[in-house]
Amino acid sequence: MLPPQLIGEALHVYACRWLPETAQRRITECSVFPTEQTKEKHQQVLEIIVSMIPSDRGSVSIGFLLRLLSEANFLGVSHSTKAELIKRAGRQLEETTVRDLLFPSHSSTDRHFYDIDLVGAVLESFLVQWRRQASPDDSESVRVIRKVAQLVDSYLQVVARDVNMPSLKIVTLAESLPGIARTEHDDLYKAINIYLKVKHLDLKEDKKECFCLGIQTC
């Protein structure tokens, strides 16, 4: 029987050969939009690849999973395929980088560039699995959630520069993490500060802190 990592590597090579990274650009930036026939072919290729990924964690990299997820979202694959990718990506979220999470939005109604909703779906899947296994006395689970919190706050610092990003999406993603995830709020505060500058808003320091900490009474 072939090692899971070897199968995963073969699938990665196959995807690079037969699955163009069209999802890395917004629809409006694509000089040639794929025909329905081409799109359907790519859907089939992607769904076959996902079905062949070994169940073992780490058989494929989180970067590869997120690339497939971005393509799946762009191509409009079946709900089950997309859900499987979100679940798998959630299991390995702490291993990723901000760069891997910068999915461009392909919605015709969204004016903002980054698909923050897709990142939110992966984070939600991670949290479901983390809460199922977490224990207050488990130092490893605390380490993992804090690493993910740092990742999320760093991600927010990037998407906060998108002038069309709705503030509600920023706050929703920031507030989705449990209190134990952050020992301090400096990185989150920086993201909020970037967002306010991009929006040309001038809030007093106490209001910025309230926004940063997600305090609803402010």
TrEMBL record:
Phosphoprotein as UniProt keyword: no
InterPro entries named among the record's database cross-references: NPH3/RPT2-like (IPR043454), NPH3_dom (IPR027356)
Domain NPH3 residues, every copy: 1-218
Keywords: Ubl conjugation pathway
A GO BP entry: protein ubiquitination
Family, per entry: Belongs to the NPH3 family.
UniProt cross-references to PANTHER family, sorted A to Z: OS12G0117600 PROTEIN (PTHR32370)
Name of the protein: NPH3 domain-containing protein
Organism whose genome encodes this protein: Nelumbo nucifera (Sacred lotus)
